[in-house]
């Protein structure tokens, strides 16, 4: 962000409307003023868009960018700045598409309703092997714990379904760009006819927690095709010694809506998965095999919430210097303080455990 601001030949967030902002609450006032059409120097507006994008607040950045694009005096930008604005547009569109897809049952066939978990599927197009499933349920856990269980990919083996020689074999982090954009990989042994599959996919957390968001949520985007944009070195890297077919996750994700926003008793979790297993999958197999696997994963994920308060997780999630958890705590304090109150306490600096 500092590089972009220097390219614009101005300090971070200059201008009369911004100079008085010395706290995050002032930024909230600034964002509200922009949305209400208050005149703001174009350079300051551009600076705010770039800052929000860097913080993962891409939907708010997208709305400000729409206001910026109406201006006639947009300054010249570097290729890096242009790429970041393109990312804001593209990611914002993906979030809107995910929300729209998960907001209706039209076009979906409900296959399972068990223990408060509902699963749907769509019949694949003839000759194509993309499996489309979605699910939703309430989970009796705060946002912080839900994020922690998913974020700690090297702990997935502690809760992901695995029975004998079937299930998750391994998972890990391939690389990342900042605390909110990561690339994961996993290996799984599945029943016939899927057998052994490997998957590499980008994970991008989109912060929709600001007070002006409707609704306030956290959106996680999953997409194999976005992995090289986060880790360009993957394009030239030799393939790891994985055994199995490389499957793809395409334009997928999940949405976390806290109870105080959604009016539910627990956090509402909605998931959309478009999986290309590199084979044509008959509809009956999606209906019975994929749906039951989807239900099992959801049951295990819900049961895994207790792990978020075990010493292994707390050693990471309560680290005051951890980039991801520090960022999440800061944003919850600004926009969803009731959720921060339910998160585990930050460990004092210099201590390695919560009893220090």
From TrEMBL:
Keywords: Signal
Annotated InterPro entries: START-like_dom_sf
Signal among keywords: yes
Classification via SUPFAM superfamilies: Bet v1-like (SSF55961)
Signal sequence, renumbered to the chain: 1-23
Protein name (record): START domain-containing protein
């Amino acid at each position: 962000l500092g590089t972009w601001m220097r390219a614009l030949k101005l300090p971070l967030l200059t201008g009369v409307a911004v100079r008085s902002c010395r706290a995050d609450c002032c930024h909230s006032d600034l964002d509200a003023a922009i949305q209400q059409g208050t005149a703001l120097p174009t350079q300051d507006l551009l600076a705010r868009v770039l800052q929000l994008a860097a913080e993962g607040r891409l939907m708010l950045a997208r709305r400000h960018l729409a206001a910026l694009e109406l201006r006639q005096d947009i300054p010249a930008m570097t290729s890096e700045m242009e790429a970041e604005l393109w990312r804001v547009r593209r990611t914002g569109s993906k979030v809107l598409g995910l929300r729209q897809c998960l907001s209706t049952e039209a076009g979906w066939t409900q296959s399972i309703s068990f223990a408060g978990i509902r699963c749907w599927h769509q019949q694949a197009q003839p000759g194509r092997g993309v499996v489309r499933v979605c699910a939703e349920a309430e989970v009796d856990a705060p946002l912080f714990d839900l994020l922690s269980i998913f974020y700690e990919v090297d702990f997935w083996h502690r809760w992901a379904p695995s029975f004998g020689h079937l299930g998750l074999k391994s998972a890990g982090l391939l690389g990342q760009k900042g605390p909110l954009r990561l690339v994961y990989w996993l290996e799984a042994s599945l029943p016939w006819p899927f057998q052994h599959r490997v998957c590499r996919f980008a994970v991008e957390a989109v912060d929709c927690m600001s007070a002006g968001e409707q609704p306030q949520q956290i959106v996680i985007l999953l997409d194999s095709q976005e992995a090289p944009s986060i880790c360009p070195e993957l394009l030239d890297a030799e393939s790891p010694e994985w055994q199995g077919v490389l499957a793809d996750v395409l334009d997928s994700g999940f949405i976390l809506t806290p109870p105080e926003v959604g009016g539910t008793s627990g956090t509402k979790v909605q998931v959309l998965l478009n999986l290309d297993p590199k084979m044509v999958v008959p509809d009956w197999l999606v209906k019975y095999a994929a749906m039951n696997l989807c239900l099992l994963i959801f049951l295990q994920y819900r049961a895994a919430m207790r792990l978020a308060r075990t010493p292994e997780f707390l050693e990471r999630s309560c680290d005051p210097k951890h980039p991801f958890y520090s960022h999440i705590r800061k944003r919850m304090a600004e926009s969803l303080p009731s959720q921060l109150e339910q998160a585990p306490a930050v460990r004092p600096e210099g201590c390695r455990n919560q009893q220090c």
